[in-house]
Amino acid sequence: MNGITLILGLVTLAGALASVALRNLVHCALGLMVAFAGLAGLYLSLGAQFVGLVQVLVYIGAVGIVFIFAILLTRGGGSESGSLFSTSWAVGGGIALAVTGVMAAALLQSPSLDRGSVRAAGPTVRQVGESLMADYVIPLEVMALLLTAAAIGAIIVAMPEKGDPGAPPQPPPG
Amino acid sequence: MNELSFFLLLSTLLFGIGLAGVLVRRNAILVLVSVELMLNAANLNFIAFWRHGAGGESAGLMFVLFSIAVAAAEAAVGLALVIAVYRRFRTAHLDRVDTLKG
Amino acid sequence: MLGGGIVKGMVETARNFLGSYTDEARLTTVEYPEERIPAKENARQFPFLVFDGADPMAGLRCVACQICEKECPPQCIYIVKDTAKKPDYTGKLQFQPKVFNIDLSVCMSCQICVEVCPFDAIKMDTEYELARTDRFGALVFDKNRLAKPNAYFHKLHPTDGAEVDGRLAAEKAKAEAKAKADAEAKLKAAAEAKAKAAAAAAAAPPVAPPPASPPAA
Amino acid sequence: MLAFLQSLLQMVWKTVTDQPSPKSLFLSHVPEEWRPLVSAFLSVLPIVMVFPMLFALTTVVERKGLGRIQNRPGPNRVGPAGFLQFAADGIKAIIKEDVVPRAADRVVHFIAPLVLVVPVLLSYSVLPFGRNLVPIDLDTGLLFFFAVGAVTELAVFMAGWSSRNKYSLLGATRAIAQMISYEIPLILSALTVVMVVGTLSLPAIAEAQGPAPGGWLCRWHFFTPWGFAGFWLFLVAACAEANRSPFDLPEGESEIIAGYYLEYSGFKFALFFLGEYLGLFAASGLGITLFLGGWHAPFAFLEGWIPGWVWFLGKLVALILLFIWVRGTLPRVRMDQLMNFAWKFMLPLTLVNMLGAGLWHFLTNPIARWGLPAVLIGGAYVVLGRGLMPRSRVGPRVYRYAD
What we know:
The complex is a heterotetramer.
Chain A: H1 3-21, H2 25-45, H3 49-73, H4 89-109, H5 125-133, H6 137-158
Chain B: H1 3-24, H2 28-52, H3 59-89
Chain C: H1 4-22, E1 47-51, H2 56-59, H3 67-71, E2 77-87, E3 93-103, H4 112-116, E4 122-124, E5 140-141, H5 143-146, E6 147-149, H6 150-156, H7 158-201
Parallel strand pairs in C: 1-6
Antiparallel strand pairs in C: 1-4, 2-3, 3-5
């Protein structure tokens, strides 16, 4: 653990905090991007080059943009009006704090974390590709199916229905 | 504190922030954002354990790759649902989407 | 075939590109500060005031009738009438402007002032290099700055100038003829009156001298 | 001191003549703890100097070229034949007032140009500019390039949204939609090379396109059926990714004024301009590395005595001139044409192209190896092209009443 890792960790946490605590939804999404970028940096510092770059490509390039489009499509671009938090925010925050505390305590007390072996560097792209195509070929295919189904499903769910009472009013003809 | 426990602590905090976001924020999109944070916390755990694990296994990396793909699918479907809900209720605020009638 | 049109277009632009180096006639642009296109006869930019003779202020045709001020759509003209009068080209005494300002930053070069002017006193200039560093004071032109000799107007718009001069000369000739006729009539009347008076003088003394005739322009 | 200068000169000489590890001798004169920093600095410095300079010259050449295409001389006032115009423009951009709209989101508005330029500069770090000139020889170079390029979309959104201007936001959403649509053909057309060469490392891909043993022609991927198609697909997709004409809808001066950088002025606007051009150069450099043999000469006998970076730079300049030529020729496409072109023409064609690359990889008979992918890709091109054409043929307009 060196200084850069620490800084990346702090950046990630700051981004994560910003993404759940800010009032403006677009700022939240941008905070989420910061957290993703920090995580990608952490992956790189852990020697997982391929995963780190995939993280940037998929999370920042695709998921983040989808979030931003969803925010704009639900008119969340301005500051959120009304209550920022739910009515039971104290209970929820308490539960989250408790879970985090329990996990952190368990973690700090665990004796089995002191492992000596540290991997020198990640597998090369060739190794990643070979294991994807050999050992993990069935999960890969299932994943392809899942992604296709998700794409079709997302289109169908988001498509406006004919005669939907909530659908945006059609402009009068003529 | 060694490196592994640093990363595990980091991922615990990340998970905690995500959990708090899910439980506390009431905008549907922000709930999804928080879910993504929790997923990423799990990914960080996988990578950290892969790095400090024994043997030449790359299962941790593979799991993260698949997890990222699942997260992409989840985000697409989840946000499509949010948009459908918004179209029906004119809001993405979960407390105001409280009817089960179709 | 998809893409054929793109290739055709690319060939065309390549021909333009190479042709512009080999054939100077293709270049349609004018290198402005060094080269200029001579202004067309009907070109117009901003108005100016025409004066006759040598002295700009004495020869100003404007009689401060304020028609242009009223007609100007963006209201960029400001006129104050002078109390002193001066004779115009026909020799008639007319008002003259004490202040005549045109704000060029407001003027829209519509030429309506020229159309409505009954005295051919305001005409359109073709000067366009009017950039100033001060956009408030420096672009308000007063009558000294606006006054330009009739010869300048002739240089800009020869046809228009000839027509205006012809008309003015005709009017002046008419006015002179009228004045002459008037004078003759008056002379005649005076002679008749004189004769009458002479006839009457035998009975009574003369009453008053005849009124002075207007001076010839 | 003399030895230090000598090593410095030797480093420059080794860099210019394509010799391996030019920095090693020089770095031995640097204190131990400074070496990584100096090494990184020496790698970054040429990129930061050469490419913005190339950008500056490109702006002038582009304006002059477009002018000549339109039969006018173009900028010719500042400096000899107008070639110092970029200096005048740069000085103007720096001393201009930086206007930020009152309603704008100031922080995001400030960060957006940086988020655009920094990743673009980062993407240069994996491109091999010459035989031994690659800043970082990443195992995952191609993935790095695309991952870093994906951040551009975010910068565009930040710029458009933070300006609080409806034209900016429209431009940003247009740009993002366009970039996402064309990223898929871009990556898929680049993947054919990865399939054949079997690596994501860009220096290795460039290395694989050297002269065949005993042959006179270099094995550029451009000289194969899938590589030929892939190169043009890549070029079109890169053009759209960089928002270049004829795909410059996000700017669309006639309808949305200037798109996402409408509310930027002065130096921030210059940064956007710089980022856009540097992105174009980077994409061109990637296209050169993937398809046009990187730093290899086209013929084997030219190899070696002309240094590799000269070839790379020459190809880059040729591609830039091609982009300028295209910009001077083609009018801007419509939004629906843009999307149709991406999803109904580019995407299927890149998929067929991948199939062709696979056939090329596995077939051994030279006739089948050349013929099958060529027929496949050519057939797909014709069929898809016919499908894109409107049903009723476009002919000369007939006037029924006015004559």
